[in-house]
Amino acid sequence: NAGVMQNPRHLVRRRGQEARLRCSPVKGHSHVYWYRQLPEEGLKFMVYLQKENIIDESGMPKERFSAEFPKEGPSILRIQQVVRGDSAAYFCASSPPGTGGANYGYTFGSGTRLTVV
Amino acid sequence: AQSVTQPDIHITVSEGASLELRCNYSYGATPYLFWYVQPPGQGLQLLLKYFSGDTLVQGIKGFEAEFKRSQSSFNLRKPSVHWSDAAEYFCAVGSTGGGNKLTFGTGTQLKVEL
After folding, report:
1. Do B42 and A109 touch (CB under 8 A)?
2. CB contact, 8 Å: B59 with chain A?
3. pLDDT tens digits, residue range B59-112?
4. Closest-CA distance of chain A to residue B106, Å
5. What is the pLDDT of residue B101?
6. To bridge A104 with a disulfide, which of A99, B14, B21, B50 should be the other Cys (CB 3.0-4.6 Å)?
7. What distance in Å separates the CA atoms of residue A85 and residue A49, rounded to the nearest whole number?
8. Which residues pair with residue B87 across a beta bridge?
9. Which residues, including other chains, have CB under 8 Å from residue B1's CB and lie 6 or more apart?
10. Beta-sheet pairing, A107-108 with A5-7
């Protein structure tokens, strides 16, 4: 049973381009979470989604960032018009339905390292 | 707002030596507490978690952690470190009011000398 799959592992974008990060949760998991890890910092919560719904986006920057988790296919974190400050590792996590989400203990993916040049 | 402090940014121990990684939290109620490990270039793996009950929690890979309410601490310990334990370790706190997000500390980088 595969874990949380994130791709690409590494992504390089020029300033002003768009970055699309993909996350396929563990089979059967319906809750997806995105976190960002800036250099020398811990992980910061960005957004929590269930299928076709954004449940909590309190950690998402107000502009340029969006996330979706469609009925079919992976969850996508989209960053428009990237800037150097967006360079970070972006981690996706998932949890099964009915488990209390974060307090159950997530399964994390290996992350996407975004570098903006 | 809840917060987590890991006061040690880097720790170096010799293989076979004991290990203790410190974690202090700030939270108004009884917290949900976690330790995660992040091997180089990989994602985070859950080592152990505390919700309630016995304050000494056993985890995977021989790790344990002790919840001390009076000190607002949840320190991670291992009696004998292996070279493969070299990684970054994160303490995190969840909220009893809702299970959507974790608040992480800034991490402790563990180096193991052979």
Report:
1. no
2. no
3. 999 999 999 999 999 999 999 999 999 999 999 998 765 557 889 999 999 999
4. 4
5. 83
6. A99
7. 24
8. B110
9. none
10. unpaired
